[in-house]
Amino acid sequence: MKNFSKQVLFILILALVISRSQAQTIPTIGTTAGSFVLFTNAGALTNVGASKVTGNIGTNAGAYSGFNPTILFGESEVANGVSAAAVPEVSAAYDSFNAITCTSTLTSPLGAGQILSPGVYCLGGETALTGDLILDAALDPNAIFIIKINGALSTAGLSNIVLINGAQVSNVYWQIGGAFTTGASSSFLGTVVAAGAIEFLEASIFQGKALTTAGAITLHNNIVNTDETPLPVTLTKFNVEKVEDKFVSVAWSTVSEENSERFEVERSATGKEWNSIGTLAAKGESSVLTNYVFTDQNALAGVNYYRLKMIDKDQTFAYSRIRSIELKPLISFVMYPNPTVSSVTIRVDNIEQIKRIQLIDFSGRSVYDMQKLDFLSLDSYIDMKNYPSGPYVARITGLNGVISMMRVVKL
Question: Which residues belong to any copy of the Secretion system C-terminal sorting domain (predicted)?
Answer without folding.
Answer: 335-402
